[in-house]
Design goal:
Length: 394
Amino acid sequence: MMNAFPPPPERQVTLANWRTHPFSRWGVQHMREVIPTAPVERDPERHWRLPRRLRDFGSLTFERYRGRGRTTLHAFLDEAHVDGLLVLQHGEILAEIYRNGLTPTRNHLAFSVTKSITALTLGPLVDDGRLDPDAPVTRYLPEAAKSGWGDATVRHLLDMQVSLDYDESYEDPQGLLAGLREAAGWSPARDPAQPLDMRSFLLRFGRRPGPHGRRFRYLTPNSELLGWIGERAAGQPFATLVTRHLWQPMGAECSADLAVDRLGAPRTGGGLAATLRDLGRVTELVRCQGRAEERQVLPAWWIDDILTGGDPACWAGTEFDYMLPGGEGNYRSQWYLADRRGSRFMAAGIHGQWLYGDRDRGVSIVKLASRPEASTEEAGMDDLACFAAIAAAL
């Protein structure tokens, strides 16, 4: 796409097209060349090493969702527009695949996987008493008193149980999500004379009737507000919090990038770009109760709460209920859980991004992609079928 210097106009990736196919194949791997970012820095003195014991998955097949026939892993890589796939078991790399120009040291936008990493980052703040999940949002953001979060708690945001007057519509160019992206600087300002910013835009959201805390509703603004709350509780930029609480103590191999708006507000609901291996390390960190090698990076109790806490009744019958069949699915602190003991946990982002952990089999899987469509039920369930087949083969 951007392999001529300069590229012809019809192939130029711009702020207006960087998230749309086919320009997104380049855009998701070059975010910091399109929009402002803040660095999430690695520690050059600390590196979590992942031994390699590569296996051949060439013969792996699995059944597509809704009886649409079997496919092979290699065919799936093309069908799902996969840019990178990483499989680990007990901390060893069993498969590592790079496609479409992705390399081991190139960051790839993880979209809403960011939400799950945001919640991990908040754990140390909760552990040392600077953040109370059961406190009202207004304890940290008094300016939110007249917004839809005015009578909500931080826990309501963490578990996506806010009665906010907002709908998550990816395709509506006039919708509130489109406005949120514009405020974040992810698309051109419709009125350059009065550009939006993230924090001001978030305070515009109103409240719907009904209590908070009764039903799961997936709303990205909740996750964006969590970043603001974390910054207010700690008195530090969120990129610094991720650096100090997660990336450096974990032993990340590469620095990551966090998208920020024109005033420096972070996109904690969808703006982290990181390498395939470092996202594998994040998945392993959750699987291992917050430990990286011999280091306790995150509070073990916070990981336990993510994996086994929450209220399945709030999840049942919601729009994503198909993802976690069996009646025990759950959502806790921005992570998807397959059952009440967290045997399988997931973080997901549009256009095909996944972190997937199977604690019973000691497996962690990361998939990064540039699917043309934002999200479909069939694509997501095919992804999960693929991960389950890989884990079962081990």
